[in-house]
Amino acid sequence: MNIGIIIGRIGDVDGVALETEKWIKVLQRMGHEIFILSGVFKGQVVAPERQTHLPILSFFSPECEWEQNRAFFYPPDDPDELLTTIDKNAHAVSTAIFSWVLRNKIEVILTENCTALPCHLSMGLGIMMAVENMHIPVVSHDHDYAWERGDRYASPFREIKTMVEETFPLQNGPNVRHAVINSAARQELEDRFGILAMVVPNVMDFEQPFGLADDYNEDLLDEIGFHRDDIALFQITRIVERKGIEVAIDLIDRLDNPKMKLVITGSAADDERKGYYKQLVDRVESQGLQDRVRFAYRRILSNRSSTRSGEKRYSLSDAYARSVACTYFSTYEGFGNAFVEAVLAKRPVFVNNYKPVFWPDIGSKGFECVMLEDNQLTDEAVGRIDEVLRDEKLQTEIAEHNFELGKKHFSYEVLERKLEVLFSA
After folding, report:
1. Using an 8 Å Cβ cutoff, are 145 and 168 in contact?
2. Residues 266 and 314 both lie in one domain
3. Does 102 lie in the same domain as 198?
4. In which element (H, E) is residue 61 found?
5. What is the CA radius of gyration of the chain?
6. Of 12, 289, 303, 321, whose CB has the highest number of CB atoms within 10 Å?
């Protein structure tokens, strides 16, 4: 089957792009031919002749930024120009999709979050127009929705409100199937729109080695200012407030062992005005933890590399390899890939019962972990964490147990079974 994927950007490290690449791998393994229509390509995802660049689909295109500013951020007094421009841009998107489908003999369209979150109005509207005119089957892979973002998509214009309500998510009857990444989203779609969606969790490839210690990463702790025999907890997330990184810092303060250290790998690139990052730095200093906490975003990136001067850069897999355990005290996640990554790397993980996903979709499946409620570091929780960090045999037992559960519930094999249903005739 020829499957055409529409996405704002592909080849990047955001959750939507990463999960899309996993779907592509599994769909290709199932024998399907994949074609991609995207506003941004970072690298080659499929054969070049199957990658079609449509710049207007980018979230950073002039068209998208202009629409977002006038619809939500800096609305004019009168919406007429905005509405006319969105309609014109949407027709251009629809026409391009129609041509792309015909040219590549596409049999099913897979939309990746571009008909769920209204962060690109003319893309979502253009897709809806194309689907209505072509009557082509669509699988809408929805990661998050407008109502999950507070007032981000509040507009003073009634017409924009109606457009968001009628276009996001896609609601075109029997030709459209919806896949969501958690059970809370499935329930919301049913309650709000009467849409019956399939939960397809984010997955990892449990057949490929990940987080393995080797000669390359053996000096990672040395290079960031710790010692190789330190008991290192790793916070392998971006630095944004909902990640609850301050709880990991407080945990280090509560653990009565100077060899227990914390490595924070993510950058503050997504932290607005770096306010949260500054709070974390101040917290480390005020608690006198400068020797036990490291911000390592300059040395730990997505992939291995080196600078012109020969300074090594380590991958996320290297970070897991040199961790003893991982902290993940998020307050909210659409899914929570970092938890499953820790499971894949065979590392114990200490987690907050983040909403709305962790317990219903992950924790209740039997994973062995220290779980906080509302990020409260109780004496009992700290004691159990301390016990795990001091006992290598216990770490191994937890890691092996969780790995088998992860393979059962969040592997490529699980994804393949879900895709067989979604893309069946």
Report:
1. yes
2. yes
3. yes
4. none
5. 23
6. 321
- Is residue 181 a contact partner of residue 334, using CB atoms and an 8 Å limit? yes
Residue 22 lies in a domain: yes
Tokens read off for 259: 């060899």
Among the listed residues 131, 129, 82, 324, the one whose alpha carbon sits nearest the alpha carbon of residue 220:
324
- 231 with 261: CB under 8 angstroms? yes
For the stretch 276-315, pLDDT in tens is 999 999 999 999 999 999 999 999 988 899 999 989 999 9
Q: Is residue 113 part of a domain?
A: yes
Question: 255 CB contacts (<8 Å, ≥6 apart)?
Answer: 382, 385, 386, 389
Query: Residue 425: is its pLDDT beyond 70?
Result: no
Asked if 24 and 47 count as a contact pair (C-beta separation under 8 A), the reply is no
Q: Exposed/middle/buried for 43, CB within 10 Å: 0-12, 13-18, 19+?
A: exposed
Which parts of 105-154 fold into alpha helices (H)? 121-134
Instruction: Give per-residue pLDDT as tens, 392-401.
Output: 999 999 999 9
Q: How far, in Å, CA of 118 to CA of 8, rounded?
A: 12
pTM of the model: 0.91
| 19 shares a domain with 73 | yes
Does 199 lie in the same domain as 346?
no
Q: Quote the CA–CA distance of 64 and 87 in Å, as a whole number.
A: 12
Q: 314: domain CATH number?
A: 3.40.50.2000
Establish how many alpha carbons lie within 13 A of residue 110's alpha carbon, considering only the half-sphere containing its beta carbon. 24
What is the count of structural domains for the chain?
A: 2
**Residue 343 identity:** V
Shared-domain flag, residues 177 and 46: yes
Answer whether 333's CB lies under 8 Å from 396's CB. no
Q: Which CA distances in Å does 240 have to 7, 95, 276?
A: 24, 38, 7
Q: Is residue 212 part of a domain?
A: no
**Would residue 209 count as lying in a domain?**
no
- Nearest Cα neighbor of 226 from 202, 262, 178 is 262
